[in-house]
């Protein structure tokens, strides 16, 4: 059954409402993929349960490569928190396209300049993050453990509330994405303490690894299908994505969104997924208790 | 100064002007359709802006934001169905005017008030953005909690005849806000195994159900069981902005604009509470508070000027801190980011020309919004000529489509229908639906901030009473309750200042 991805319409399921980062990523891929594969690509937003509803519906589709989704760390945290009926290996991961670190910033009045300052601070340090059970929450837990500091975990509804709380001094520090804090860090409204990996937006902020702390988990976005994908179809996807990443409009949107295009495929991708799952799932499971 | 001159260039760039006009028009249409919101209008436009020059893209997005907030008033006034959460309060005095046959005048008032509120809010944004942002940052857990409590009491007081029933309806909303993942521990509450409820009861299906679908049910009910009074013939000659009424209500406009801008500027305060707070304030300042809720000019002026000032206010923390003021601005910020503009403090410090372009585009969007609506009034009113036998099914279909379009989740359509039934019952028994929706919004804010406060204050609850802003808000709540229960007639509580 030699099928071609050009045979039918491709549907990308975005498990969030239109307008967010995941949605923008999918829509930026849409046009280059349509040109390369010579077929139409539709985006379907299925929001609910922080991704559970959309991912669950994706998994009910046939693994023929015509229905795919945009995976990210939420898959691991939803599994770990016990909010989803799926597990991360129910997906066949086709590619990682972008990666970005998590970043720890603090209220500038505390005078903290790096992670060592937090590690020796008089606890408890009040650490905020957007969303209980979110990947930022899991990272906040991982960061606190790595720093070995006494902390109060303070969940917020979203990035905006958490960042405003840190700027206003209601909490000490906040875990978020580079794009959310880049402007505030540059202007000194927030102090950048450490990132879990390199970020072009925050080149003045050193990584956790550089400062001697072993926290390297990255947020990422890519393409995944329900498991059971045919090898030939997978290869067609990889070829199409490799070509799509050269599209200048796509690159521009990713640069503006602060996501580094850092593609991984095949065995390297599998290793990355396993490593990230091992970082996140057990921590999320512990939060449940 | 050269920055301002440079940014004035967009005034003569026809592409930019068309972009703003198109965005505003689309925003107005989507804001006016029940089920489609400002958030949706902006989200829909974002992919469209990918290939555009930034000035055009920004203008289009700002226009959509501005238009959608104003457009929500049209169905609120004509059909008692608010197009967006922030226009819920405009049903209180807007729809009674339509009932009296003054739909044209009501729309004229709303449009003019939106315009004035929007322009004044934009001026506050341009002149005082940094200090307002600094004020907004003083809101911590205690302040949010107290603001939410004040908001709940105000809404219960203004939206129903009986304060007790209003509070009960608000309580129901608070209960519904507890559904879903616990905001602090993540434990699932009352989700009954339904994954769509993990993140709580979705606001849009609740709004659409309580206001739009409940109207449809009510219409069917009245058609079967009682003779319905026919709508008065609309006097279309008055379908233009009554500027005189606006001038007389300048105090109302001033206080509503200020309240709208400030509440809009506080990230996470739930902008829709602004129009209720303004309404309450207008009623207390009024010489004729008993007329509020019966189709009174001042009521509609208060809610609509506050609404569009709220839109300007929500831009303040986005532009000065990089933190959006509410949901629609969060999506707007995503759209600007894709255009290569990173909203935040650096924008203010470095890209002077860009920030002035944003200001000018926003002012233009307000002007376009006014002009488009001005020519649209006579068209809007035609909707009332449509026989209810056709109108009501159309509202039902549009509402359910809107809900589905927003989330793509069929569960939300069932949820909207269930809320429709609930809203119908609440209306029949005089509880009102506005307190439920605001309870749903503010209940979550109150609960999460109470518990967040208990965490960061190390369990010291007295901090809720010792922080000055929080104390002031709680004191206002207690005073309000005192006056409400002392007076026999809730409509006249305002006269006892």
Can you lay out the helices and strands and say which pair or pack?
The complex is a heterodimer of chains A (289) and B (497).
Chain A: E1 10-14, H1 21-37, E2 41-45, H2 52-59, E3 67-69, H3 74-81, E4 91-101, E5 103-106, H4 115-119, E6 125-130, H5 135-147, E7 151-156, H6 159-167, E8 173-176, H7 178-187, E9 191-195, E10 218-226, H8 231-244, H9 248-257, E11 260-264, H10 266-288
Parallel strand pairs in A: 1-2, 1-3, 6-7, 6-8
Antiparallel strand pairs in A: 4-10, 4-11, 5-8, 5-9
Helix pairs in contact in A: 1-8, 1-9, 3-10, 5-10
Chain B: H1 2-8, H2 14-32, H3 38-49, H4 54-71, H5 73-79, H6 90-99, H7 103-137, H8 141-159, H9 163-177, E1 180-181, E2 188-189, H10 203-225, H11 243-248, H12 250-265, H13 272-285, H14 297-321, H15 327-338, H16 345-350, H17 352-381, H18 388-407, H19 410-428, H20 434-456, H21 463-466, H22 468-486
Antiparallel strand pairs in B: 1-2
What does this structure look like?
The complex is a heterodimer of chains A (289) and B (497). Chain A has helices spanning 21-37, 52-59, 74-81, 115-119, 135-147, 159-167, 178-187, 231-244, 248-257, 266-288, and strands at residues 10-14, 41-45, 67-69, 91-101, 103-106, 125-130, 151-156, 173-176, 191-195, 218-226, 260-264. By secondary structure, chain A is an alpha/beta fold. Chain A has a five-stranded mixed beta sheet with strand order 7-6-8-5-9, with helices on both faces. Chain A has a three-stranded parallel beta sheet with strand order 2-1-3. A three-stranded antiparallel beta sheet of chain A has the order 10-4-11. Chain B is 72% helix and 1% strand. Chain B contains 22 helices and two strands. Chain B has a two-stranded antiparallel ribbon. In chain B, α1 packs across α17 (352-381), α7 crosses α12 and α12 runs antiparallel to α13 (272-285). The longest helix of chain B has 35 residues, at 103-137. At the A-B interface, α1, α2, β7, α6 and α7 of A face α3, α15, α16 and α20 of B. Chain B: Keywords: Membrane, Transmembrane, Transmembrane helix. Chain B: The chain crosses the membrane at residues 20-46, 58-78, 106-128, 135-157, 163-185, 197-217, 252-277, 315-341, 353-377, 389-407, 413-443, 464-485. Chain B: This is Tripartite tricarboxylate transporter permease.
